[in-house]
Amino acid sequence: MANNGNANGNVWQFKGNTATSDAAAVALRKLVFKMFRNYNLNSGKPILAPSPGDPSASPSFLTCPVAEEAVAAAARSGMANSYAPSPGILKARRAVADYLNGELPAKLKEEDVYITGGCNQAIEIVIDSLAGNSVANILLPRPGYPHYDARALYSCLEVRKYDLLPQKDWEIDLDGLEAAADENTVAMVLINPNNPCGNVYSYDHLNKVAEIARKLGIVVISDEVYKHVVYGDRPFIPMGIFASIAPVITLGSISKGWVVPGWRIGWIAMNDPNSILKSTGVIQAIEDCLDLTPQPSLILQEALPDILEKTPKEFFDKKIKAMRHSVEFSCERLKDIPCLFCPKKPESCSYLWVKLDTSMLVNIKNDFEFCMKLVSKEATQFNGSIANLQ
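That's the Aminotransferase class I/classII large domain-containing protein sequence above. Prediction below.
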């Protein structure tokens, strides 16, 4: 038991909140920086430590000059020095609605969109808004993005997992998805394009997911942050197309598409043509959560319409070409590493998802130990264990 006393015999009535430690323990950043601490500063080797999902440090993946100028112009304008309204400024919300509408049969309006500090804050707000029931649970993909697990744990929302099937191009195990739910299930998370597996779901598969969500009476949280990082042949289909079947909350940001994760600007979009999210109080809960959290930078909000509307197609084409080259190169080099195997060449995302065969290694028990030793011996960092490399 911790000693809460001091030298004078006083007993302090406070202590740290262990819920934060429990949640942070499953967060990707916690794992990455834990491995980084294992690096020998005296090794003389420069560390190759890619930040999770962030290629922006590479000169091959610089952002668009249009985006940079939009931010600079917003800063110079003198119009972005005040506080922003909790849901975001109207022109930013309108620009996101226009950006997402595309082929959506039920078009979004500006009031259906909320601006957030990146996609991670969007995740936190949506999870918190659904966590009011003490016995509620949420369905998360396995493998998946650990921030969902961390936030659900912090918000006391039970996590249940459904599997992605490598032998079926990482499609969702639909039978397993349905079996994991019960009368206390409130939502499922769908990541498309998928992080970390790199697959893109077909129209038919997403339609089946929507039908299951309707049968279960749950909302689909669709994480679409990688929609502009698709370099395979299968086109991206937004889950909002199926919102007439089951309500869909779309999460997104410019972090991956524009290669600017440090700018921290994202959104929540309510695809709710049947007003289910409104009648169940979810929209009100999200708006209340927004009143409790810091607003994203007004400079970025002012710049967002120009970023979304004026970025030339050539920027994305160039980035996708570089991504495709990196994937081809990496998969080819993997053939020379017997203990690592890639189940499927990715079509999207900025990860290469591999399987580790520990039987071919000496004194390596699991994927986490492999990654830790790789850092200490070779100054190269992988994201293992939480990513289920094994």
